[in-house]
Structures are given as C-alpha cells and as structure tokens.
Amino acid sequence: MKSDKSKLTFWLLLSPLVIWLATLIVLPHVGMFLVSLREKVGIREYETSFANYAVFFNEPLYWNTFARTAYMSIAATLLTLFIGFPIAYYIAKLTRGRTKTTLFLMCLIPFWVSELVRTFGWMILLRETGVVSQLLQYAGLVDGPIEMLYNDAAIMTGLVYTSMLFMVVPLVTTLDSLDDSLIEAGYDLGGTSFSILREIVIPHAMPGIVSGCIVVFMLSLGNYLTPILLGGKDSLWFTGLIYSQFITRFNWELGSAFGFLLLGLSSLIVFLGLKLSGQSLSKTMAR
Amino acid sequence: MITTIPQNSAFKWSYRLYVTLFFIYLALPLATVCVFAFNDSVFPSLPWEGFTWAWFFGDQAPYIGVFHERPILRSVVTSGVVAFWVATLSVFVGTCNAFLFVRHEFRGKAFLYILMLLPLIIPGIILGISILVFTSNVANTLEDATGLWFDGLRPGIILVVLGQFSFITTFATLVISARLQKFDSSLEEAALNLGATQWGAIRAVTLPFLFPAMAAAAVVAILMSFENFNTTLMLVGSDAPLTITMFDRLKLGSTPVLNAVSLLLIVGSAILGLASLLLQKK
Amino acid sequence: MPSTPDLECRAISKSFKDFKAVRDISFSVPQGTFFSILGPSGCGKTTLLRMIAGFQEPSSGDLLIKGKSMLNVAPNKRPVSMVFQHLALFPMMSIGANVGFGLRQRGVNKSDIKKQVEQVLERVGLGGTSDRAVSSLSGGQKQRVAIARCMVLEPDVLLLDEPLGALDLKLREHMKIELKQLQSEFNTTFVYITHDQSEALVMSDQIAVMNHGVFEQVGTAKELYYEPQTAFVAGFVGEANRFHATVNTVKDGVLNLKTPEGKSLSSLDLGQGLANGNKVDVFVRPEAVRLSRIAKDVAKMGNTGTGIVENVLFNGANSQLILRDATNAASMNVALPQTGEFRDLAVGDTVHFGWAPEQTRCFAHQGN
Predict the structure, then answer these.
(1) Which domain, by its residues, includes B186?
(2) SS3 letters for B223-238?
C-alpha cells in the first residue's frame, strides 16, 4: 500500500514538470522547426522544403547580419572578460570582510534593474543632445553636439554593461576558492606576477571564465533591446531580423528558420565551450 | 597580487583607480536616469533647469507625473498581474520539481534535468516566437475543428504569463532545490516517528524549512517578470506590461516621466533584490 | 674565521596595530642546521617564519641570509623556499610541472629542467612520477613533492610551516624520520615551526621555544628537556608535575622549599637569585620519580613522599600513575615502569616515591 502511495506522489510530482517542459519548451521548438521547413506555395498551401534556409544563404544581408551578430557577440564577450577579470580578482583576492560584500553587492545591484532602464540611461548619456555631449561642449572640448549613439561602439558599451554581472559573479566565485597560499608558493619559488597569473590564477579560474563567457555570449547573441536602442535602425542584429519577419513582415516561416539558426549557433557555442573546458551543463548553470 | 605580497605603490594605486572607474561606469547610467527624473525640463538632458517633483506628481500638461499617467499606471497593473501569476506558478512547479529531483530516483532523471536547464540557454526571443508559433497553430487547429474562438491562445496576457513562466520556473527550481538538498531528512523521519503522517510531516517540518527559498524564488520571479523584455515582446497583445510600454515611449522620444518610472523601478528592484538575498541567506 | 650563518635575525619585531606578535628576537642559524621554532599557537612563530619568507615586513630589526640583508627584497627574489602548511602544491599542474615551476621562472632551458626535476624526484624516492597528477599522491608523497619543489632550487634556507600537521599520527611519526634524513642528505638549513614538541625534539639540532613573541630558550633537545631555563619551557617541553612553594632556606647550592601544605622539597639552585620567602613554581618530570613499595628504597632521594594510587592510566610503555600525596593531598603523575614490578598495583594501594634534587627545577612564580 505504501508503495502505491509513493508511486502516486511520484506521478503527481512528475506531471507539472512534464506538462511544463512538453507544452512550453519541447513542442513549441519542434513546432517551430516544422514551420521553418514549410514553403508557402499558395494561400494556406504549404510544402516541406529547405526553401527558407536557402533564402537565408542566398541573401547576403541575412547571413552578413548573422555573422556580424556572432562576431560582435564574441567581441563583447572578450571585452567583458578583460574588463571584468581584474574587478573579480580585486573583489576576491584583495578585499576582505565587509568591503568584499559591499563591492560584490555593488556589482549585483545594477542588474536587478530592468535592462530597459539601463539602456535608457546610456541613451540619455550618449545621444546627440545627451549629457556627455553637452558636458564636452561646456568644457570647450568640442564645438558642436556630437552623436555617440547609433554606432558599434555604443552597442558594445551597452552589451558589455548588460553582461558584466554574468562574468563577474562566476569569476569571483572561482577566484575566491583559490587558496592564497598557492599564490604565495608561486612567489616563494621565484614566480613573477605575470607568470603566477598565467600558470596558477588563470588555470584555476578557467571554469569560471568558461561559464562566464558562455552565458555572456548567449545573452549578447539573443539580445534585442541593446542593439536596437543603442545601435539604431541600422544596427543589423539578427534578433532584429527575426522580429521584423514575425511582426512586421508576418513571414513566420522565414522567421522560424532564422530563429532556428540563432538557436543552433547559440547551442553550438555552449556545446563547444563545455566540451573544450570539460564541464557539464548542470555544473555550469546550477551556480 | 594578494595582500601579503609587497607590490609597488604605483601599481596599487592604478589598480584602485581602475576599480573606481569601473564602479563609476556601473553607476553612471542608473545615476543619470535618477537625477534627470527631477529636472524641471521636458527633456531628460542638460541644462539643469531646477529641481521638481512634477514628473512624479504633476497633473498639468506637459508635466504629467507618473502617478497621473493612465497608460503607465495601467501597464504597471498589467505587469503586477503577470508577475503575480508567474511567481505563483513557477514557485509551485519549482517546488514540485525540487522534491522530484532531490527525493526521487527514476529512469531518465538525468535527461529530464538537462531538459529542465535548457530554458537557460535558449535566447528569450526564440522562446517567445516558438511559443507564439505553437499556440497559434494550436488555436488555428482548434478553431478550424470546433468553430469556436480561442483568444487565450492568441498574443495577450495569458501568453505573456506562459512565456515568462517557461524559463523563470528553471530559476525557481534551482533556488528551491538548493535549499531542499541542505534539508536533514532525519527531521522528517523524526516527525514520522512521532506519529505524523507523510503529508503532515512535510507540512510541519519540510515546508517551513523550505519557505525562505520559496519566498526568495518568488521574489526573483517577480523581479525577472517585471524586467523581462525579449520573451514578452513576442507574445504581447493589447495589454502591454510596463517594459513594453516604456519601450514604445522610448522609440517615440523620451520625457522625464520615463526617468521617474525608472527611478521607482530601480528602488523597487533594489529592495526586492536585497530581500531575495536576505531570504536565501537564512 | 667563523663562517657566516645562513640565517640571522637581529632584534626583529612585528606589530599589528596594538598587538606585538614578535618582539626583538635575535638569533642565528649556522649552515646545515635543522632549526625548529616550537611554541603554542598564537605565539608568533608563523609571523616570524612569514617575515623570513618575505610575506610580512618586519616593523623593526634586520634579517640576513648568508650575510645579506633581506629587507626590501621581494619574496620571489629571496634565496629561501617554503613548504606551506597545506603544502600549496599546484593542483592544475603535474608533479613534474610543480617541481619544475621555480626553474621555469629562472628561465632554465627545458631539457635541463626535465633532468633536474627527475633527479630531485629520484632523491625523494618518487622517480618516474613526473607526469602524474598531484591528486594521485598520498599524503606522505605530497609532502616529498613539496620538499622536492623547493630543494630543486637549492635554497640557502628551507622554511617549513607545520607541514606534518595535516597527516595522521602513524604517517607523522614516519615523516619525522624521513624529514630528518632528507635534511641531512641535502645538507640544507631547515627552519621548521611547529607546536608539536615531539616533532621538534626528534628532528632538530637546535630548538627555540617561543612564547608571547619572544624566544624563551634556545638549545638542543636535551638542554631543553633536562635544563629548562624558564617555567614556560619546563612546562611546555615534556611533561611535568607542578607545585607551588615558598623558598625556606638557601644553602650550598640547594634550595629548601615548603609547599603551602607544609611539605618540604629540595631543588638545585640555578643561581636565579631566589631568596628566602620567594614564591616559586616547582617542576618535576613524571619519569624522574622513582616508585617503591618499601619506604627505605626511596628514603635518601632528597624529595620523598607516600601516596595512594588514585588511578592507573595504562598505556603500554607510556603508562602513568596518578597518586594522591598522603601529606599534602597534591595530585601527582608518575611514570609507571613496565618492568613487571608494579603490574599488580591497583587503585587504593599505597606506594612510596622519591626524586633527586637534581631532577627538580624551580622558577620564581609569575603573576599572582
């Protein structure tokens, strides 16, 4: 009787999980894939083909945007890593007690705020009539207003800003677990700051670096708000293409194909990152 | 390099300078947004025209404050409703998942666990379009078959809730599982030993222990729901949540009223965020 | 001409805010010595060691290695190496890469590094393990890798920060002997800090007993054991029974003492200038006390007494007897010789005991 009861409990616990994953994750993606394979031949008449994918490869604008999104995301990831690493190191190794907690919290707070608000802040700062431009004019450094919005540098600034948390947190966690005595031992044996960084600190921080980079890359790739608002109409971000196919052009077939390509790229990078660093998804994500 | 190793002071000071600059970079956009919420001007930019509360409480055009802006107030209510349902659903499913993954061994557990983590690595916009495509197809099929209307499956508040729920549940599951793993199951056994029923023991011992994590998960869910943009954008109907309303305003050109909303959001998020940290520490 | 000592400290001090961890310590360690610093935790020995390694700067004083001042020399430029408490082997590197780390920093070419690493691993009995991971080693083997990693750099002084602390008892006993052997084989100066007196006593040529930031006494193991110069050393090195007493008479180099309960004791006068009426602490080692069932056997020993067996702590060769002195009710630990003579001794039995004044040490009572 007891086993009947525990079986019932098990099924009761299992069903919400299965319903959630099946109806909101698995089936929609399968459905989207099927739609992406649909070619419209007439009104409400479809054939299965790779025509939508062919459109993508034959139209330079599409795959140029795709490639551009990918390499801009890689650039944003590396930039975030180079800016964030010294900060994470400072928090983890050079501060203690309350200072450490405070600095760490100061890193977290901006990210509890909506991305929209953060991006809005950058717009106020960077646009032609914005704060930076006007301050430069008051200071007499420039003659007229300067537009700092709607270029790649602005997109980069926004992406790095938005992603910083997801780099700093895993880095602080892994660097925190590096025993100070290992660094001392490195010095004691004649190492220099540079060689210790290269041979001891970075190898130790590798899991954090990998998981930080994976998350930042994914977020940049899938970002819509930052490139659209800071990069303007010509930002050429792949998510922008997906949006316009779906909402403006109402071409769901092509939009689904685009979606799948983006998902494929994103998954590929995650997979490669995990493989190269020998980590598992569960360990990387379940921080 | 570390505090016990002597370092030349030029390096030390430039390192500190770098850290300071970094935190300025972090604070700058948010501080700017907040400051210009009080500027007595119709544009959120310099020059500084003096201090005003008008963008919060003003009721005379063009100074319509947040608290008199109908569309914004309406979208706050929408966001609140969405956040409530997302938090309720995701904490419920998250708690079930936590019990399932922590307490039960079954075939395919590892596979389901990976599947459970997947929403974390699916870009939000794709999550949005896949649900949009799927529900529209289902609605089309059902309408063709029955001749009835299925508005709930068309873009609108229900789809927004489902879309946000689809990935926030993963976070809830992780937060609650982490706490359940720390639970000493001998406590529950002790309750059973003292004559409690299985469900009674869970309710009297395990759930109270789990409560801080559930509350933290709910707070995180509310935060994430309020600020979600990508998934929501694809599923939104006529009742737009706050972020979408603000986005539409932003595209048209901004007035300090957006700064005022943002300031309130920043304060709210900071309070909720700290609350979730405190809850998780318990 | 006396050769320059490998390590010399001159009036070295270290203060943290309002706490003086190390006060004006001066000492020198000749080449090839196994020098231990023994003291309870918090006595400042770790601070002293870290100052020698360069991880802490002395507040005052000078520190010389082979006659050269090390002040303002960074840790990575000092000719000392350190074996850390938890060894600090680099988990991200193979054993060979760990041992070769220092050589790589010096820019030695690859084939030489390989040769030297293999040689030093051979010397510590781990030849051929170069490519294995650190985690594949046992506790004792890790210890040897940590030493090899330092020794391959041929340091003037090797510092060891309680490296045996993390090992279990059996292994620790074994490693004591092994460390001593390694030291004499490499003929390098070792400075070893520990709170475990047996580690210090077994391995060291010279031991400094440290307490509250100062060296109480520096000497060989035997000197510390037989001739402690301070009450702290007498109590900390080896075991001792301790009594309070007052000086009664001083005559011919012998002190006559009286305990508060009126028991009379005699001790050698070490010339500390104790005078009649001074309060003193009296120390006598359990193993210096002779037991007998016949009062006459111990009657001429200078200090005698009769006691009732309160407890027998049987522990093989280290068995002890707890006696309650019949005259002053003081409790006393006495080593129980395992010659068979006292095998049938039981709780409640009466035994006679005695010890010579030469085996007694007394020091002016400190504090209240």
Answers:
(1) 74-281
(2) HHHHHCCHHHHHHCCC
- Residue B62 forms part of a structural domain: no
pLDDT computed for residue A1 by the predictor: 42
pLDDT interval class at A285 (50, 70, 90)? low
φ, ψ dihedrals at C159, nearest 5° = -100, 135
What class, spelled out in words, does domain A60-285 have in CATH? mainly alpha
For residue A286, CA distances in Å to B90, B174, B176, C333 come to 17, 7, 12, 58
In this complex, is the C-beta atom of A195 within 8 Å of any C-beta atom belonging to chain C?
A: yes
Q: What is the pLDDT of residue A87?
A: 93
Q: Cβ A191–C86 below 8 Å, yes or no? A: no
The answer to whether residue B34 sits within a structural domain is: no
B117 within 8 A of B170, measured Cβ to Cβ: yes
Q: Do C90 and A182 touch (CB under 8 A)?
A: yes
Q: Which residues of chain A neighbour C54 with C-beta distances below 8 Å? A: 187-188
**For residue A44, pLDDT beyond 50:** yes
- CA–CA distances in Å: residue A150 to residues A143, A232, B165, C13, C24: 20, 5, 33, 62, 67
- Mean pLDDT over A86-113 rounds to 86
- Cβ contact (<8 Å) for A131 and B46? yes
Domain of B106, CATH number, reads 1.10.3720.10
Mean pLDDT of the region A91-107: 87
Write out chain A residues lying below 8 Å of B130, CB-based: 28-29, 31-32, 259
- Domain presence at residue B55: no
For an interface test with B, which of A8, A13, A90, A113 has the most B Cβ atoms less than 10 Å from its Cβ? Answer: A113
- Closest CA of chain C from B173, distance in Å: 33
Task: Specify the number of domains making up chain B.
Answer: 1
- Measured in angstroms, the CA of A218 and the nearest CA of chain C are apart by 28
C57 touching B, CB under 8 A?
yes
- C-beta separation of A105 from B34 below 8 A: no
Directed axis angle between helix B70-103 and helix B242-252, to 10°? 140
Cis peptide before B47 (omega within 30 of 0): yes
Find the residue in C nearest to A185 (Cα).
C88
Assembly ipTM: 0.85
What whole-number distance in Å separates Cα of residue C117 and Cα of residue C96?
6
* DSSP β-ladder status, C241-251 and C279-284: antiparallel
When pLDDT is averaged across residues C145-155 and rounded to a whole number, the result is 90
- Closest-CA distance, B135 to chain A, in angstroms, reads 8
Mean pLDDT, chain C, as a whole number? Answer: 87
pLDDT band for position C4 (cuts 50, 70, 90): confident
Candidates C265, C271, C274; CA nearest to C245 is C265
Residue with tokens 């003292």: B194
What is chain C's Cα-based Rg? 25
Taking 50 as the threshold, does the pLDDT of residue B73 lie above it? yes
A268/A245 Cα distance (integer angstroms): 24
pLDDT at B253: 72
Model confidence over A237-273: pLDDT tens digits?
888 888 888 888 888 888 888 898 999 988 888 888 8
What chain C holds in terms of domains, given with CATH numbers, is 7-234 (3.40.50.300), 239-364 (2.40.50.100)
Contact assignment for C53 to A188 by CB distance below 8 Å:
yes
pLDDT band at A280 (very low <50, low <70, confident <90, very high): low
Pair type for strands C80-83 and C68-69: unpaired
Distance CA B224, CA B168 (A): 7
pLDDT of C13-26, one tens digit each? 999 888 888 999 99
